[in-house]
From TrEMBL:
Name of the protein in its database record: (S)-2-hydroxy-acid oxidase
Catalytic activity annotation: a (2S)-2-hydroxycarboxylate + O2 = a 2-oxocarboxylate + H2O2; 2-hydroxyoctanoate + O2 = 2-oxooctanoate + H2O2
Native organism: Buceros rhinoceros silvestris
Domain of life: Eukaryota
Cofactors that this protein relies on: FMN
UniProt keyword annotations, A-Z: Flavoprotein, FMN, Oxidoreductase
This protein's GO CC annotations: peroxisomal matrix
PROSITE patterns: FMN_HYDROXY_ACID_DH_1, FMN_HYDROXY_ACID_DH_2
Residue positions of the active site: H243
Gene Ontology molecular function, alphabetical: (S)-2-hydroxy-acid oxidase activity; FMN binding
Residues that hold FMN according to the record: 77-79, 106, 128, 130, 156, 219, 241, 274-278, 297-298
Binding sites annotated in the UniProt record for glyoxylate: R165, H243, R246
């Protein structure tokens, strides 16, 4: 089967994954308005391309907090990769390294941080943290990640509770018994109830800061007010994200929230985006509106479901090729030439 675009991987994953795994990956909250809006919103943005600008030599490299990556697309944190491929997050780490981009490993990985790190030595890896009721659990995770040379700590802010995902409720979704949340083994006994701490506030950023020298990136910001608070609390990066539409249904598409956050931040910290990126031209639109880099969630899982590490590399390569082509057709030979002048919003 020739894989030409990311939808081909989606169709493959839908056909071949067990229904319960497909439903878990695909799920959005409630009636999935925000999940779907994340994708639709790109269609309302059009390009204002420039012509005759010598795009014979293209440079699509960029930097994430000082580390060079081959193009501005990384892998967002998603849980349970063994549901897609037996080697799970180890394959994800290898693919990200092979494509020279950043992989954000989730707290809810089915491989340990040690396994993920060893699978791709020297690769750019960040660790995504949920703060747990038992702070010792989180503290230990942060310290393990730092000792293992993870280079950034991503604090997910939009999940005090898990959103209501109807298909997961209907399916009674849970991990199959042979898969484990390997980084949290033992923690369930300590906490008894849900591990997530819904009492987390901005003050906890100071607590995190006291634990680690790693840059802190906050994920799940959608408003200028929270962007300002994030900067004031000393984070190094913000990911504009609505968790792929899996949390509060009814929030805007991330591409529609991006400009507000970028304007509030005024270049003081790096701003990234995830949600609904399915084509290279989506990446270009996000960069035009001020994102330094974007991250993909579900498409990475589809790539894994197709052929593990190789499949995910193929997803990344397709996005990379599409992004390079879109840039060239829009008249940009390097990332620094991308800006708001490249896009306009249409009323669709
Ligand atoms: C997620 N996401 C997520 N985010 C996070 O911070 N920690 C996590 O463990 C997970 N787990 C997770 C599982 C699955 C199956 C999905 C689809 C998503 C959210 C993820 O990081 C990202 O915000 C979205 O997936 C981006 O949207 P797209 O690219 O899937 O449209």
């Amino acid at each position: 089967m020739a894989m030409v675009c990311l939808s081909d991987f989606e169709a493959y994953a839908k056909k071949y994954l067990p229904k319960i795994a497909w439903d878990f990956f695909a799920a959005g909250a409630d009636d999935c308005s925000t999940r779907d809006e994340n994708i639709l919103a790109y269609k309302r943005i059009h390009f204002r391309p420039r012509m005759l600008r010598d795009v014979s030599v293209m440079d699509i490299r960029t930097k994430l907090l000082g580390s060079e990556i081959s193009f501005p697309v990384g892998i967002a944190p998603t849980g349970f990769h063994q549901l897609a491929w037996p080697d799970g997050e180890k394959s994800t780490a290898r693919a990200a390294k092979a494509m020279n981009t950043c992989y954000i490993a989730s707290t809810y990985s089915t491989c340990t941080l040690e396994e993920i790190s060893a699978a791709a030595p020297g690769g750019l890896q960040w660790f995504q943290l949920y703060i747990h009721r038992n702070r010792a659990v989180s503290q230990q995770l942060v310290q393990r990640a730092e000792a293992l040379s993870f280079q950034g700590l991503v604090l997910t802010a939009d999940l005090p509770y898990t959103g209501k995902r109807r298909d997961d409720v209907r399916n009674g979704f849970r991990l199959p018994p042979h898969m484990k949340l390997k980084n949290l083994e033992g923690a369930f006994e300590v906490c008894k109830t849900s591990l997530l701490d819904p009492s987390v506030t901005w003050n906890d950023i100071h607590w995190l800061r006291s634990l680690t020298h790693l840059p802190i990136i906050i994920k799940g910001i959608l408003t200028k007010e929270d962007a300002e608070l994030a900067v004031r609390h000393g984070v190094q990066g913000i990911i504009v994200s609505n968790h792929g539409g899996r949390q509060l249904d009814g929030v805007p598409a991330t591409i529609d929230a991006l400009a507000e956050v970028v304007e509030a931040v005024q270049g003081r910290v790096e701003v990234y985006l995830d949600g609904g990126i399915r084509k290279g031209s989506d990446v270009l639109k996000a960069l035009a509106l001020g994102a330094k880099c974007v991250f993909i969630g579900r498409p990475a899982l589809w790539g894994l479901a197709y052929k593990g590490e190789e499949g995910l590399q193929e997803v990344l390569r397709i996005l990379q090729d599409e992004f390079r082509l879109s840039m060239a057709l829009a008249g940009c030979a390097s990332i620094s030439e991308i800006g708001p002048h490249l896009v306009q919003f249409s009323k669709l």
